Amino acid sequence: MKTKFNKLELHEDRVVDALRTITIDDLSDTKPQNCNVKLKSTTPMMEKLWDVAMSDVEKCVNELDGKKVLTAGATFGIYTRDVALAGVLGVNDFYSEAVIGSLKYTRDYQLNKIGYKIVTARNLPEIDIPWELEDIPGYDPKADIDWNRKYELAPFTSCTDDVVWLWCIDDLMVKDLIKKEDIQWAYENGIAFFSTFYDKFFDPEDGLYRAQACFVDTGGTGYPDNFTPSDQVLAKHLSTNALYFKGLETMAAICTILGKNEEATQWTKRAEKLKEAIRNTFLLADGTLVHVKTPNDYIDGRQHNLSIAFAILCDVVTKEEGAKAVQIFPVTDIGVPLFYPIFDGRIGYHNHTAWPFADTFYLKAKEMVTGEDLTALNAALLARTCTDDGTFHEFCGFRSGGEPIGSGSQLWTAAGFIDVCKRANLINNTK
User: DSSP states of 187-240 as a string?
Assistant: First the structure.
C-alpha cells in the first residue's frame, strides 16, 4: 500500500510527512499476545503497523472485578464513547469480550453509582431531572479532573453522547459476536437509559435530542466562545442526533431478535420521526450538512467531520446527499480538521486539531458515497502519529504544523488502523 498526498507519503518501509520520516525501525517492537491474525499481500510497513495497532489495543485490555475491560489508552480510564467507537472501527472483531465487559461496567456505574449526581458548576436546571448537585473544592468547570478523582466516570452532563454504546451493540449483533443473554442485557439497559436519561433530553417541539457534539467534551474548545457549558448541552448537534437515530434502530433490532415485535415497531417509528427531524434541520438545500442548532434555534453553518460521517454511516442521508456533503469538507496531509471552518478564538484539544479516529470515520464515509479508495491515505495519516515510542497517538495540532500530540497506544487511533485494513481487504481471516 503506497500513497502520495501533498507532503504525506506512505512507502513500503516508511511514512514521510513535512515534519519527519518514520521507518519500520522507529515503530514499537511490541507484538500482540492474544491475536495471531496477520495481514496478507501487503508491505512490510503495513505489517509492522498492524502489529503495533493490535499491541496498542491489547495494552488497553485490563481486568476489573474479574472481567475484561478496555481503557481509552494505555494510561487512560474507561470511557463509553472511546470503547464504543473503537468497537465499531474493528476492535469488536478481535476483542469483543473486553468491549462488552466495558459497556456493562459503564452502564452499571452510570445507573447505579453516579445516577443524577453532577457538579454544581455544570447544573442543568433546564432539563427535567432531579439533579444531585455536588460542590467539589477546586473544581475547574472547563475540565473534569477533580470529579474524576472522586468518580471513575464523568457526570452525565459531560457525556450526553452516551447513546453511542448502542451502535457498538448493533455492530456486535450484525457480526454475530454477542451472546443471546447479552442481547437481553442490552435490551434491559437500553430501556433503562432511555427512560432515566435520554428521553429527558428529547425536545418534542423540533423532534431532536439536546446533547453535546459527539466526543466534544462540554467546557472544551469545540464550541463558539459565547456558549456556556449549559448551551453546549442544550444545543442540538447532528453527530449525536445521528447516534440517537442509530440507537433507536438498534433497540428495534434488539426487540426483533428477542421476539418483541410490537416494541420493535414502536422503536422503528421513533427512529423514522427522528430521521425526518434531523434531515429537516441539518441538511441544507445546497447539500451542506451543518452540525449544530443553537439553544436559540440558530442554524450555524459550521461543519463537523463526525457529523457528516455519522449521517452517512448511520443512513440518515442518501448516497447522493452524502456525496454532496463531502465535496465541501477539506482533507489535508495532517488530517481532517474536526471542524470547518475552525473556530477562530479557541485553541486546544478539539479546535485546530485533527483526530485520526475521526479522520477514519470521515474517510470511510467518503469512500461509501464517492467510490474512491482512500485507504492508503487513511493509513498514512494514522502511521504519521506513531512518533516517540512508535505507537499510535491521540491527535494532531494544526498550529504546530501537524505534530502528533497526546499519549501513545491510544485505543481508537489503533482501531482506526484496523478499520483501514478491513476496508482494504488486507486481513487474513485464518487465525
Answer: HHHHHHHHHHTGGGGEETTTTEE--PPTT--TTSSSS-TT--HHHHHHSEEHHH
